[in-house]
Write a structure and sequence with these properties.
Blueprint (H helix, E strand, L loop, with lengths): L9 E11 H19 L2 H4 L4 H18 L9 E5 L5 E5 L8 E10 L3 E11 L1
Antiparallel strand pairs: 1-5, 2-3, 4-5
């Protein structure tokens, strides 16, 4: 697929993840002190509700799927929120995102589920 610009071959990469909040809450309540630092950066956890953490977890999973990132490295990216509450992805210095032309993240949740979707336009 050609992205419209001469000489640039790009492809659309997508990832989506759905988290059942009740199922997520159980392990977090039982092993939260060990689980939080293993899965989340301190800024992701600060003041976050279980629903927000489930959304952040779903966002990380969706990004891993879209960008083929190693699932064992939860710190390769961090989910943040801008002043308007819009989520974004920030990569660790050890990850080179130069092949990513555009990246979009959406997170939503109800009382029961959190869902996240990542769409990336990446150079081949």
């Amino acid at each position: 697929m050609n992205g419209g610009a001469p000489g640039i071959d790009v492809e659309v990469k997508t990832g989506v993840d759905l988290v059942n909040i009740a199922e997520f809450r159980g392990p977090l309540d039982r092993r939260g002190d060990a689980m939080r630092p293993r899965l989340f950066a301190p800024a992701e956890v600060a003041g976050a509700t279980v629903e927000r953490l489930a959304g952040i977890f779903a966002a990380k999973e969706a990004a891993f799927k879209a960008l083929a990132l190693p699932r064992s490295d939860w710190y390769v990216l961090e989910i943040g929120h801008d002043g308007d509450g819009r989520p974004y992805i920030e990569f660790a210095e050890r990850y080179d995102p130069s092949h990513i032309v555009s990246l979009d993240l959406s997170i939503s949740h109800t009382d029961e589920y959190a869902v996240a979707s990542v769409m990336a336009l990446a150079r081949k």
